[in-house]
Design brief:
Recoverin, domain 1, repeat, mainly alpha, EF_Hand_1_Ca_BS, metal-binding
């Protein structure tokens, strides 16, 4: 059953404040879209929101994302309360940053996606995992892992300002401010321009 007008209005009002990159009309459209997608789904979470698979399908169909590992991380980043389900509020607030976030917000978001174990650092191992996962396998004689290790070294050389062998948020933020292209250095986790 679709949500009531009243419930929709309440959601739109509160999200109008928290999802500051959308106007009320847009929030209302996004909530309705959420509602439609949830209604079409046969998931057992459907009453509450998107489960992981629905969310991945949406990322794939709406934003052309194809990388499973990254989509999983995006899911975790949207799922603020860690209940394995994305509510209408998490959906709109997540999209606010995902689609229109300031550089500051996008830096935080990408850092969170890349910090696989949530310890506040992007470690050498995490970089390796993500790069190994997002680079196309080239059929070649040499060991692909070697090339990825080299990339990790280059990334650290360029971004690890305090030379502790891992990227803190401060390192990541400084690197991206100096060179915006580094924002998605470890995998495509934002929608492409179109």
């Amino acid at each position: 059953a679709a949500m009531s007008r009243k419930r929709l209005q309440q959601l739109v009002d509160s999200l109008g404040r928290s999802a500051k990159h959308f106007n009320k009309r847009e929030v209302e459209c996004l909530v309705k879209l959420f509602d439609t997608l949830v209604a079409e789904s046969s998931s057992r979470f459907a009453a509450v929101g998107f489960d992981r698979n629905m969310f991945r399908d949406t990322l794939h169909s709406a934003f052309g994302m194809t990388d499973d590992m990254i989509m999983d991380r995006v899911f975790h980043t949207f799922d603020r309360d860690n209940d394995s389900c994305i509510s209408a509020v998490e959906w709109v607030e997540g999209l606010s940053v995902f689609l229109r976030g300031t550089l500051e917000e996008r830096i935080k978001y990408c850092f969170e996606v890349y910090d696989l174990n949530g310890d506040g650092y992007i470690s050498r191992e995490e970089m390796f995992q993500m790069l190994k996962n997002s680079l196309l396998k080239q059929p070649s004689e040499e060991d692909p892992d070697e090339g990825i290790k080299d990339l990790v070294d280059i990334a650290l050389k360029k971004m690890d300002y305090d030379h502790d062998g891992k990227l803190s948020f401060t390192d990541f933020e400084k690197a991206v401010r100096d060179e915006n292209l580094l924002l998605e250095a470890f995998g495509p986790c934002l929608p492409d321009i179109k």
